[in-house]
């Protein structure tokens, strides 16, 4: 089976997005100001259970995958499995490297801490939008609000906000502490996906 150039390009864009999310998630976790809502939920479960973040992400997404398999098969693709299987473990590996090779004070002292947080937050959000706009399949966590938006004809950004705040609630039940990053990302993931998608189309990436 021959893979056309457009598919190769979309696959490369998707993998860059997933890798970026994993890398910058590790920085957000180290800084401790908070993460995206899905990672906030999974990190809280990870701390509560003692299971690695990567493994928790695989397990949670596997449960959500059932709904995607039943109602949203068109959203299943290579990107679905790349996100499910790679994102958390990339973050775990990068955290290991940061703890081994980077000085701890840059994650704890100002102004380094806030600068790393701002940069990692921006780049994580951009990476997430790039991954979703590649249209190579969505992770179950991302697919569910997309499916609901299509089914109800409600704006995606509004549905995504509600979904993200539900994830925050689950994280809080697992004793996670809500932080500024989780709140910011709950309000910005939906609009960012739309904005980055328009920029990528203008740039001729699709």
Describe it:
The chain is an all-alpha fold and 206 residues long. It has helices at residues 5-31, 37-49, 53-71, 78-101, 105-108, 112-133, 140-152, 156-173, 180-202. 43% of the residues are buried. It has one domain (5-202). The chain contains 9 helices and no strands.
Looking at this protein, list some descriptive labels.
mainly alpha; 206 residues; single chain
> How many distinct helices?
9
- Report on the biggest sheet: none
What order do the SSEs take from the amino end to the carboxyl end, as H and E?
HHHHHHHHH
Helix content: over 70%
Structural class, by secondary structure, is mainly alpha
The residue-averaged pLDDT reads 85
The number of distinct β-strands equals 0
| Share in β-strands | under 5%
Low-confidence stretches: none
**Broad shape:** globular
Number of domains: 1
The rounded Rg comes to: 17 Å
From the N-terminal CA to the C-terminal CA, the straight-line distance is 22 Å
Write the layout of secondary structure elements.
Elements: H1 5-31, H2 37-49, H3 53-71, H4 78-101, H5 105-108, H6 112-133, H7 140-152, H8 156-173, H9 180-202
Helix pairs in contact: 1-4, 1-6, 2-3, 2-8, 3-4, 3-7, 6-9, 7-8, 8-9
């Amino acid at each position: 089976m021959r893979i056309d150039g457009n598919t190769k390009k979309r696959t490369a864009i998707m993998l860059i997005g997933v890798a970026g999310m994993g890398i910058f998630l590790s920085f957000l976790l180290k800084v401790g100001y908070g993460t995206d809502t899905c990672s906030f939920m999974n990190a809280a479960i990870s701390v509560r259970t003692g299971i690695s973040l990567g493994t928790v992400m695989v397990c949670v997404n596997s449960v959500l995958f059932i709904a995607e398999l039943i109602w949203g098969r068109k959203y299943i693709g290579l990107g679905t499995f790349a996100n499910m299987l790679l994102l958390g473990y990339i973050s775990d590996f990068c955290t290991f490297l940061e703890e081994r090779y980077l000085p701890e004070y840059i994650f704890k002292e100002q102004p380094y801490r806030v600068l790393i947080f701002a940069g990692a937050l921006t780049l994580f959000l951009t990476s997430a939008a790039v991954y979703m706009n590649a249209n190579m399949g969505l992770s179950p966590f991302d697919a569910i609000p997309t499916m609901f938006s299509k089914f109800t004809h409600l704006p995606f950004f509004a549905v995504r906000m509600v979904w993200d705040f539900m994830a925050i609630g689950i994280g809080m039940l697992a004793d996670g502490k809500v932080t500024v990053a989780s709140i910011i990302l709950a309000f910005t993931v939906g609009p960012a996906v739309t904005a980055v998608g328009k920029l990528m189309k203008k740039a001729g990436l699709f």
